Amino acid sequence: MADNPGEKIVVTVGDFLKAGGKRLGLELVAGTAGSGRRIDEAAMNRPGLALTGFYQYFAPRRIQILGHSEMAYLASLSEADRDERIKTLFERHVPCIVVTRRHRVLPELLKWAEVYKTCVLRTNLITKHFINGATIVMENLMAPRTVMQGTMVEILGVGVLLVGKPGIGKSETALALIKKGHCLVSDDVTSMRVDSTGAVIGSPVGVTRYHMEIRGLGIIHVPSLFGVASVRNEKKLDMVITLSSPDMITTEDRSGQNAVKRTILGVDIPSIEIPVAAGRDVANIVEVAALDQMLKRLGHDAAKELDEKLISVLSGANHSDE
Question: Which residues contact 295 (CB under 8 A, 6 or more apart)?
């Protein structure tokens, strides 16, 4: 089963500043009008060769980094040459320019930033640390993403998405798991993205973060009731569990050997279907399913091992008959 492959992400300089400004210690020093300019590539670029006039392999769609060597080179030029080199860089309509190590922002940078409506940012981080952090921020912002109907929980490190028709009991099951000591990621609606390792990451959506809706009770704030350790900001998705009424179950496999996958953002995620009926402790079953998935990742598949034992026993019986 394949889900929405995800929407095309448009990231602007303003998005980058909002997402990474605090973490990267960024301040906007010039070119405020350029905050809406798009950043089309997650990688960073140091325009050292470009400043010398060599633009053959220049990457204009990336954030441009002026580190210690670039600033030292610009300082070595005459005022006229420095002004011309910086103007030429701005003429390429780069997304923005970041000055690292809290270097003094040159007057020429301030002047041409306003003329070409290009943001100039500054950070006190050394260049390599800024590039590492900024690349992570950009990869997260540009990662394929989608929104899914479902409640996500973490069970002993296993990220589980509970899906099913409205009223089937997803939130109630999640609440029972939280009371057992497990954690809520999101209720009812979950945002999904693919990180740089290819894993699907689930997180809450907007103002619903840390809140749950329980039918008959209303809205509750989970960390206020169960403590801050009862919630997670995001979690890798390890399995999808569909809660269904018994008459709606679509799979007949009772051994669990026929692995079913659900494709989310191009990634195959293990999936199982659990019937919901009066008297069934669904939370316990979901908990055991998560633990079983953990064992499978470690190479221990109970259904496969039992099948191999049965084949061995039957093969031995057949040989004894001969």
Answer: 301, 302
